[in-house]
Amino acid sequence: MSHASSSLDALFHPRSVALVGASSDPERIGGRPLRFMLEAGFAAPIYPVNRSGALIQGLQSYQKVSDIPFPVDQAIICVPVAGVEEAVRDAIAKGVKAIQVMTAGFAEIDAAGRALQDRIVGLCRAAGVRMLGPNSLGLLNVPARFFSTFSTFLNGAQPQPGSISLATQSGAFGSAAYGLATLRGLGFSKIIATGNEADVDVAESIDYLADDPDTRIICAAVESCRDGNRLRRALLKAARAGKPVLIMKVGRTELGAAAASTHTGSLAGNDKVYDTVFRECGALRPESIEEMLDIAYLYTVSGVLPANDELGVFTGSGGIGVLMADEAGAQGMELPPLPAPAREATLALLPFAVAANPLDMTAQVTSVASGTSRTLGVMLEHTGYGAVLGYLAHVGLSPERFASTQQEIAELAAQHRERLTILVMLALPQVRSALEKQGVAVFEDPTRAVRAVAGLAKIRQRWQTLYQLPDSAQTAAPALALDDVHTESGAKRALAAAGLPVPPEHLCNSAAQAAAAAAQVGFPVVAKIVSPDIAHKTEVGGVML
Q1: Which three-class secondary structure state does DSSP give residue 475?
Q2: What ranges in 58-170 are assigned the alpha helix state H?
Q3: CA 345 to CA 343: how far, in whole Å?
Q4: Are residues 106 and 212 in the same domain?
Q5: Is residue 451 part of a domain?
Q6: Are residues 44 and 95 in the same domain?
Q7: Tens of pLDDT along 307-356?
Q8: Which of 60, 209, 337, 448 shows the greatest Cβ crowding within 10 Å of its Cβ?
């Protein structure tokens, strides 16, 4: 897969781009990608393609890609569905290495759309051209300022460079995620929306991002998966590269699965299978976009996974400490008691404190010089907790009063970079930013802070027991006799051939055979009708005890 994924370079790093269906109206779907690339300062040549041949947003346009008198690395296609096949053929004839099809109206619509989708991907494969889409919202290479998307989020903001990458089937999910992340100040390396996944899918994108030097953590979202082993190999590769994967699987309910089918023409699949694959391959499934971004934020700030499942909590409020303890328990984390040296050091510093875990400094901590930062020092120096969380209320809203404590906390965190140091408080942007630069994460909500730590702890646990993919799965699944799986007995034979245990049974064609089989098995027994035409046996009296 790594060799195949290297061909995604032409998607993420094009040396020149043709935009087919380019519009002079910067608000139209064919106009937005051009405007976004120009506004972002994308440095490679951009060639608008429009039948008019007129200037498009200040650039010379061409009637066809093949009319462009310069080399073209990538074609972005935004024409109506009826013109997509012709545009693909023309781009291939020009010698492009990659094609993005943003147009919708393919397999997600009907059988005719699926047939058209199959034809265009067949053309691309025959020519060795990689295709993103169709029905894709596009992709972004943020450091290169290649904003090849029509997402309206870019009307109001631009993602900034960072170490998070995002691969998603759903463009709307992707733009919602990186939109929320951008407003939180999180930065991105690569973003890709795979749409109908006729060629490039989320699994291959994860594989590519596992090699990307600008990516430290991968966020992903899938509605379905065509190749389970490919997804498993990609997740295992990312884990072994030390890059956490936070992957959301939508369609966990019957209603969600039905919506996924109408959205990208995908079958959602058995939800428990996905949970198992993610767990065995070192990935984590967040419950929401907010949780996914919280975990990604914590990892990008700290750069480490917690060394164990133990939390140390200190607060100026007993109630908030209890709240965090509740959430820690719900997430499977531990709050071990303070070790004796830590308890002694705490009481020597704060005789009025509740020297436990959570450690309640009480409001009197303000009467002790550097009381808060020195308490953090005790927690870091005299315990082995993988993460230390301090609730400091709203002191971050008063930068002048908080300045000395902030500096002391930053220095302590720098001395203990192998530990997660987290502050839960309200803070002005400049306070938050200064702490983050020193590896100190800042959360406003104590529950979200604990969940983020627990998420990273689960990833550490899973990396310690990664699934070992059998050698046979590296090439192809073993051949099975699947010619007769339309009956229960045929399906069980196929499962048994694959090495899965099935209950003993006998296929009988007469009453005499059934009586003999029952005597061999031993009573009581069950008799079932076997017919490919009867899906629900009980409805026709086809099960007898």
Answers
A1: coil
A2: 84-94, 111-127
A3: 6
A4: no
A5: no
A6: yes
A7: 999 999 999 988 999 999 999 999 999 999 999 999 999 999 999 999 99
A8: 209
